[in-house]
Amino acid sequence: MIIRSLARVLSPGARGARLSILIFHRVLALPDPLFPELPDVRHFARLMGWVQRWFQVLPLATAVQQLAAGTLPARALAITFDDGYADNASQALPVLQHYGLCATCFVASGYLDGGRMWNDSVIESVRRTRHLQLDLREAQLGTFNLRTQAQRRHAIDTLLKAIKYLPGKVRLQAVDQVVQAADVLLPRRLMLHSEQLPLLQASGMHIGAHTVSHPILAQCDAAQAGWEIAHSKRMLEDRLGGEPVTLFAYPNGKPGTDFYASHVAMARAAGFTAAVSTAPGAAAVGSDLLQLPRYTPWERGGLRFGLRMVGNLRRGSGGA
Fold first, then answer.
1. Are 282 and 312 in contact (CB under 8 A)?
2. How many domains does the chain have?
3. Are residues 106 and 124 in the same domain?
């Protein structure tokens, strides 16, 4: 009860309320030895059990409206997922339903129906290759030994860091060179399918937009960035039978690095009423609704997780 009590002190409701927003990407069926920090379904269930006991979970759209009106309840929290992975439906949703919780799934619309994000192409190439060494010197990415899981994880982390902020076309070329060097068949069922979206929405998983191709908006020209933001909204609304999509998540999401104030203005012009970043903190009355912070602790023990959540309530809610 100490976490619940501390959360109530720091977020007492109404004009003094603060909104915590959790951010997830995937919920795996089984633990991944390459990425032990990613929640599998059993750990995710423990997390949701803690969250249910300590916080008042609301749909993000409802929480945003109440935050703006100064009527947010004490200990308010919303749950979000980024990118649109299929396991959000197969693994996360049953857990959420078990605990009577809701969440928002921010979908990169261009990867629906069999698409694959660039980082997953890199991860699965290194994971699946039978080669014990990956020679990427022609791509100016170095050479990697892959005899152990630790070496494969090191290769993945190094490649993702090196490729992430390359210009769009250059990034895709680099990824293609990694895939070719690995010489593997990559999975094509990692992401959601269009027909799942209305089913998810009907089951308590609200749908938000996350651009079309998940670019770093700060590296796009204004026309491309505006199209990515607005067209993702239109694509998802079409898949949802005209249901308005009012929530947006900035790809990568670091204010001032991955997106700027100009992109906030684009999100507003596109018709989004709220948008989330990956800056830590909790939103308060008066926070910019188009730059809401999000934070999820990595701690696997309940007390440490809860104390991190309480600490996050004390942070500001900065923006771009």
1. yes
2. 2
3. no
94/89 Cα distance (integer angstroms): 8
Contact assessment for residue 228 and residue 220, using Cβ atoms and an 8 Å cutoff? yes
DSSP state of 147: S
Q: Which amino acid is it at 199?
A: L
Instruction: Give the C-alpha separation, 142 to 26, whole Å.
Output: 29
What CATH number does residue 290 fall under?
3.20.20.370
For residue 249, what are its two tokens? 């998540």
For residue 101, the model assigns a pLDDT of 97
Whether the pTM exceeds 0.90: the reply is yes
* Weakly modelled stretches of the chain, pLDDT under 50: none
What is the per-residue pLDDT for 320?
57
Residue 1 is predicted with a pLDDT of 77
- At 316 the pLDDT is 65
Query: Which has the closest alpha carbon to 20: 259, 264, 276?
Result: 276
User: Which residue, among 275, 103, 113, has the nearest Cα to 201 in the 3D structure?
Assistant: 103
